[in-house]
User: What shape does this take?
Amino acid sequence: MTTIGQREALRMYGCEVLDPAGLRIGIVGDLFLDDSTEEPAWITVQTGLFGTNETFVPLDGAAFDGARVTVAVSRDVVRRAPFVDTERGDLLQEQEDALQHHYDRIPAPRTSGAVGHRPPGTPGG
Assistant: This one.
């Protein structure tokens, strides 16, 4: 799987999200960039009846074919992810730390303030 760039990631809104086994997780709801690199780092996936739940999923190891996003984590792991309120617009360090821990990822070096944000001009951004 390859790294997904910002231009490519902007086309993912509303696309179906699958796990590595091809199981449907939901649809892409939002995109969050890493503050230090400005590269896509997280998506939110709308799940549940009528897409009423929204869960953060890392883009590390994800692939995008123009219609579907295949992430590197299983559907069950996504379903058990901690809830993070996205109303503020930024992903706070403690929220990202909880997500990093849940997804067994090495946390990014600490920076001041928020560690993720929506790209300008995007839904919710």
Summary: The helical segments are 6-10, 75-79, 93-102.
